[in-house]
UniProtKB/TrEMBL annotation:
Record has Transferase as a keyword: no
PANTHER family: RIBONUCLEOSIDE-DIPHOSPHATE REDUCTASE LARGE CHAIN, RIBONUCLEOSIDE-DIPHOSPHATE REDUCTASE LARGE SUBUNIT
Residues in Ribonucleotide reductase large subunit domain copies: 243-265
Name of the molecule in the record: Ribonucleoside-diphosphate reductase large subunit isoform 3
Keyword Nuclease: no
Organism: Daubentonia madagascariensis
GO biological process: deoxyribonucleotide biosynthetic process
Keywords from the UniProt entry: Deoxyribonucleotide synthesis
InterPro entries registered for this protein in UniProt: NrdE_NrdA_C, RNR_lg_C, Rrm1
Family named by the database record: Belongs to the ribonucleoside diphosphate reductase large chain family.
């Protein structure tokens, strides 16, 4: 990224001739990489921006490759005492240590965030923390009793005990609270939800450590030194929870799990509960779902309810929304407050989406699966978006 920014060259090397690059990150990587360049161990030199253009071109056409930053993943990982984290899973929310003897395992569960909105349009953080604690206990039980197809997976899972708590229905929660996705209220709620989940998960993991002892490789980890995820981001939490008290408790007992939070895509589980996926805004307010029994038109249930209550739902309205590709912005009969509330992802600033990802990121100790939607992508837009995300 630095060399793309400064329009420098990028050297392509053979890992057999230039060993060890996968074992280091940050300044150590740069030092080793540059030493190989000076020694002339380079197979080919290309302009960094030329390589970057190939990445952007591929993303424009296919949506891939998915991108993560190795330095950030390692610098902010609670597993950094184990060694260098070299890879993620496909969806990029799981970043765990692997080695010749260990295959990383992700033990996942997701919370339906819409379920904690009360009838008075307030958010029940206390209940969210309680359910998070139940999930932590359940996932720890799974680690203990699970069937492992290979011994390397069993060894890794029982030594480090990583879990990944994710979410679904964030967009649904915002709608139920009557917060447009880009509003200041939604941005604060986004932060407080993940602060609550991280707090609840840490507290439950600490309670389990008090009962069974901390995980095997706890000593030397950032948490064992009193450094939590938000400390590594240089972020101060809101005053929703007593972090000082929790840190004192952790210093005394440790925690049972090396990793706790990992918002996954929830592509299938969100369908079961009828929620919008993960941390994503709605992509459309009306769409067709194809299943074995046929094709069905699905309408955003919140929009359907709001339009019905206001006497605005009828065949003509349905056809208008379909004609507008699931958008309600250009339909005159729909009031402005509903237009704000039911913006699709194509109508929401992707800079805000990235900003919200960074704000919740301070309470996510693995990573998060995040999609960016740009209706008319080009080299400039995608480059600007990537560099904004990188600098966050």
């Amino acid at each position: 990224m630095k060399r793309v920014e400064t329009n420098q060259d990028w050297s392509l090397m053979c890992p057999n001739e230039c060993p060890g690059l996968d074992e280091v990150w940050g300044e150590e990587f740069e030092k080793l990489y540059e030493s190989y360049e000076k020694q002339g161990r380079v197979r080919k030199v290309v302009k960094a921006q030329q390589l970057w253009y190939a990445i952007i071109e591929s993303q424009t056409e296919t949506g891939t490759p998915y991108m993560l930053y190795k330095d950030s993943c390692n610098r902010k990982s609670n597993q950094q005492n184990l060694g260098t984290i070299k890879c993620s899973n496909l969806c990029t929310e799981i970043v765990e240590y692997t080695s010749k003897d260990e295959v990383a395992v992700c033990n996942l569960a997701s919370l339906a965030l819409n379920m904690y909105v009360t009838s008075e349009h307030t958010y029940d953080f206390k209940k969210l923390a309680e359910v998070t604690k139940v999930i932590v206990r359940n996932l720890n039980k799974i680690i203990d009793i699970n069937y492992y197809p290979v011994p390397e997976a069993c060894l890794s899972n029982k030594r480090h005990r990583p879990i990944g708590i994710g979410v679904q229905g964030l967009a649904d929660a915002f709608i139920l609270m009557r917060y447009p996705f880009e509003s200041a209220e939604a941005q604060l709620l986004n932060k407080q939800i993940f602060e609550t989940i991280y707090y609840g998960a840490l507290e439950a993991s600490c309670d389990l450590a008090k009962e069974y002892g901390p995980y095997e490789t706890y000593e030397g980890s950032p948490v064992s030194k009193g450094i939590l995820q938000y400390d590594m981001w240089n972020v101060t939490p809101t005053d929703l929870w007593d972090w000082k008290l929790l840190k004192e408790k952790i210093a005394k007992y440790g925690i049972r799990n090396s990793l706790l939070i990992a918002p996954m895509p929830t592509a299938s589980t969100a369908q079961i509960l009828g929620n919008n996926e993960s941390i994503e805004p709605y992509t459309s307010n009306i769409y067709t779902r194809r299943v074995l029994s046929g094709e069905f038109q699905i309408v955003n249930p919140h929009l359907l309810k709001d339009l019905t209550e206001r006497g605005l739902w009828h065949e003509k309205m349905k056809n208008q929304i379909i004609a507008c590709n699931g958008s309600v912005q250009s339909i005159p009969e729909i009031p402005d407050d509903l237009k704000q509330l039911y913006k699709t992802v194509w109508e929401i600033s992707q800079k805000t989406v990235l900003k919200m990802a960074a704000e919740r990121g301070a309470f996510i100790d693995q990573s998060q699966s995040l999609n960016i939607h740009i209706a008319e992508p080009n080299y400039g837009k995608l480059t600007s978006m990537h560099f904004y995300g990188w600098k966050q």
